[in-house]
Amino acid sequence: MLSADEGNTKLALFRVTSQNNQSNNKDKTVAFRTDGAGFLSFLSRINTHKVFNEKNERITSRNVVDHDKAYSIYFCDPYGNRFEITTYDHEQIISEFAV
User: Fold this and answer.
1) pTM recorded for the entire structure
2) Domain 26-96 in CATH: superfamily?
3) What is the pLDDT along the chain (99 residues), one digit of tens a residue?
4) Eight-state DSSP code of residue 49
5) Using the 8-state DSSP alphabet, how is residue 31 labeled?
């Protein structure tokens, strides 16, 4: 875990391990945690941009994943790198976004 601002911003690096030297994209995800307002702001704009997943399927706000205590959305950059935006403000998302 790396932090340059006394723990307010963190970067966690993990060794990728897999059988037969084949890893899936879930092992190579860069995750960004945000508060509920930031997550909702991201969702309000994602439908107006062409954002895709690792299968080259279009991602919209309908692709939000409920992890019971957190909400996340996953997508890839043009080079296939996988990203996650997540929030632990679960109750706020339930009350302000129809998931």
Assistant:
1) 0.75
2) 2,3-Dihydroxybiphenyl 1,2-Dioxygenase, domain 1 (3.10.180.10)
3) 566 777 677 666 666 565 544 555 456 788 888 999 999 999 999 999 999 999 999 999 999 999 999 999 999 998 888 999 999 999 999 998 865
4) S
5) E
